[in-house]
């Protein structure tokens, strides 16, 4: 029986499109670089997802790219091409087995695309920007921008036919959609750049195209979410005020939800807005009636409750569901004290984690709480 104070985590949530989620807990989209070499969904991914999506309200996939040049990671599954429909269909089915609504997240990596993975090494973005390897990205032409917008629409059509309940536009973490919003990465002077209102032209056009395809192709209510990062560290980069302008514009689109990408759910702004109040509180206020998913540093049920008190309608868990696939079930059963918070180097098979992801988890110090196995 659920501990009384955590009942709130299991409230049903109504999204802006009328779709109801069975609770507030969301599988956060996390890159796992475990797809097949041909960019199709692998069996290892299917079993990984199925193991940790029981009893969730919403399950959001790792991000998929909407065109070959939009790739961002090694072994990242693709959201384009008829050849990828069977794998995406299996993925949607796996995610939905426990009652969660299944959402396909997609993007174009833009200037963050690895040159060795992007076809012909042609790394593109809103403007020519010097990259970390000393080279520069290539500025997209007007025609290319229009074509990428249509790619988001085609990916939406693929998601609908694969049986997903919705899609999430990845406008966060410095990828192409965010690159257009940011004054640091978007230095254009045509219709796609300039003032913050002009820099919103691309994300709003992507949103319109996704919603156009949904209206045309979806037979039942279909989720369209939008993920964003509220600030950037660069001097010319995003501020909270830019993000409030983005939210105000998105509020006219009747999106299902907004998903804020934060490192810590209770962090405060660097620039813009009220520096004494959390970003999450201010974003929820700006979003009005649109439900907000909060993410970042939520490890325990108590922290999940805190994020809800700050106004989040839903709480996304990433690493927590990798370390403890039964997180939701244990809280629901009143067994929150049994939630695993560490793992050992021998836990890959028990936790049903693909080889590539496991390699990253073991190879990046501090990313996961790995401990020595207890000895008798």
Considering the chains and any ligands shown, give keywords for the structure.
single chain; 376 residues; alpha/beta; TIM Barrel; eight-stranded parallel β-barrel; 13 helices; 32% helix
Describe the protein.
There is one protein chain. This protein has a single domain (4-363), classed as Aldolase class I (TIM Barrel, Alpha-Beta Barrel), CATH 3.20.20. Helix content is 32%, strand content 12%. The chain is built from 13 helices and 13 strands. It has an 8-stranded parallel beta barrel with strand order 3-4-6-9-10-11-12-13, surrounded by 5 helices. α9 (301-309) links the parallel β12 (292-295) and β13 (314-317). α2 packs across α3 and α3 (142-162) runs parallel beside α6. It starts with 12 loop residues before the first strand and ends in a 13-residue tail after the last helix.
């Amino acid at each position: 029986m659920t501990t009384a104070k955590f009942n709130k985590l299991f409230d049903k949530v109504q999204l802006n499109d009328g779709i109801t989620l069975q609770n507030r807990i969301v599988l956060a989209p996390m890159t796992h670089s475990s797809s097949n070499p041909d960019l199709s969904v692998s069996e290892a991914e299917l079993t990984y997802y199925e193991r940790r999506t029981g009893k969730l309200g919403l399950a959001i996939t790792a991000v998929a790219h909407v065109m070959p040049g939009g790739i961002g990671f090694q072994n990242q599954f693709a959201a384009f091409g008829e050849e990828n429909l069977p794998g995406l269909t299996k993925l949607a089915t796996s995610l939905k087995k426990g009652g969660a609504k299944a959402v396909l997240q997609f993007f174009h990596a833009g200037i963050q695309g690895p040159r060795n993975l992007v076809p012909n090494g042609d790394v593109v973005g809103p403007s020519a920007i010097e990259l970390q390897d000393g080279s520069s990205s290539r500025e997209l032409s007007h025609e290319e921008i229009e074509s990428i917008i249509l790619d988001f629409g085609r990916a939406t059509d693929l998601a609908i036919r694969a049986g997903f309940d919705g899609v999430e536009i990845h406008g966060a973490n410095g990828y192409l959609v965010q690159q257009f919003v940011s004054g640091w990465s978007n230095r254009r002077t045509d219709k796609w750049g300039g003032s913050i209102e002009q820099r919103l032209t691309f994300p709003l056009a992507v949103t319109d195209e996704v919603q156009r395809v949904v209206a045309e192709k979806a037979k039942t209510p279909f989720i369209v979410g939008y993920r964003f990062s509220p600030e950037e560290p660069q001097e010319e980069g995003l501020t909270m005020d830019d993000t409030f302008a983005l939210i105000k514009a998105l509020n006219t689109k009747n999106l299902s939800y907004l998903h804020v990408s934060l490192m810590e759910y209770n962090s405060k702004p660097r620039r813009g807005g009220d520096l004494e109040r959390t970003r999450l509180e201010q974003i929820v206020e700006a979003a009005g009636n649109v439900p907000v998913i909060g993410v970042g540093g939520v490890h325990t049920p108590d922290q999940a409750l805190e994020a809800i008190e700050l106004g989040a309608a839903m709480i996304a868990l990433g690493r927590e569901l990798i370390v403890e696939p039964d997180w939701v079930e244990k809280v629901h059963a009143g067994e929150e004290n049994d939630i695993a918070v560490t793992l050992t180097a021998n836990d890959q098979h028990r936790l049903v984690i693909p080889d590539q992801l496991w390699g990253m988890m073991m190879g990046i110090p501090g990313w996961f709480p790995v401990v020595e196995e207890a000895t008798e």
